[in-house]
Amino acid sequence: MNKNLKKGIANPGKNLKKAIKCFGITLLAAQSLFAQDTTTHKKSSWEVAIDLLPLIDKKVDPAGYLVRRIVSTEKAYRFKFRPSVTTIGYNVPVYVWGVYAAVGIEKRKTIYDGLVIYYGSDLSIGYYETRVKNNTGTGLSNELNILVSPFIGTQYYFHKKISAGFESHFPAGFMGSWARGFDSNSAFSYSEAFRAELKPLYCLQVCYRF
């Protein structure tokens, strides 16, 4: 089940302080390892990024893998992907799998040497399936999410190829779910809802540019 869509990040203020502290430590460490090199980037380039927020807060899912196509100093396209496969439970096993994908666009602005502020929006789709097995059969539930997520973020390039930053998101959209009981002859139940949720600390990313 998609935990990110069913609950907000616990104690966002506390997590934000942790993220800022971690971000600061990362910058200090990087500056001691690398000579300051923020040579002007090529106007067109690629970036890949990974989310480190789950290392700070175990209760959140990773935002996924990000591929960014920077087409100019002021514009970029992005693609995110996150597969998930989980088995939980002891006496009653619960199997959860799903996939999440998103495409988006960014408007970017360099406001200081190496510091970039950007904003934009993602369009995402996620599908998740949960199976619960016991002596009487297998219970099944499915979830489909289609969301639009405006965002704002920042990156600091402490090397011309390496940067770190974080994003805030406001995902909103459709959530549909259907489920069936343990009896294979039981009918599916269906529900749908509109959900909107502010996530001040959505991801904490480390990026590599090439």
- The top-level CATH class is Mainly Beta
Over the alpha carbons, how many angstroms does the gyration radius reach? 20 Å
Tell me the overall shape. elongated
Report the strand count: 10
What do the pLDDT scores average to? 81
Give a quick account of the main beta sheet: strands, pairing sense, barrel closure: 8 strands, antiparallel, barrel
- Residue fraction in strands: over 45%
N-to-C order of helices and strands: HHEHEEEEEEEEE
In whole angstroms, how far apart are the ends? 35 Å
Tally of individual domains: 1
Q: What is the number of helical segments per DSSP (H or I, 4+ residues)?
A: 3
What CATH architecture would you give?
Beta Barrel
What is the fold-level CATH name, i.e. the topology?
A: Porin
Low-confidence stretches: 1-12, 30-39
Based on helices, strands and strand pairing, what is the structural class?
A: mainly beta
Helical amount: 10-25%
Biggest sheet strand line-up: 1-2-3-4-5-6-7-10
Describe, in short, the structure shown.
The protein has 3 helices and 10 strands, in the order ααβαβββββββββ. It is mainly β and 210 residues long.
Describe this structure in words.
The protein has one domain (3-209): Porin. The model is unreliable at 1-12 and 30-39 (pLDDT under 50). With 210 residues, the chain is mainly beta. It has an eight-stranded antiparallel beta barrel with strand order 1-2-3-4-5-6-7-10. The protein has helices at 3-6, 12-33, 53-56, and strands at residues 45-51, 65-72, 75-88, 94-112, 115-134, 137-157, 162-169, 172-180, 189-196, 199-209. It is 14% helix and 60% strand.
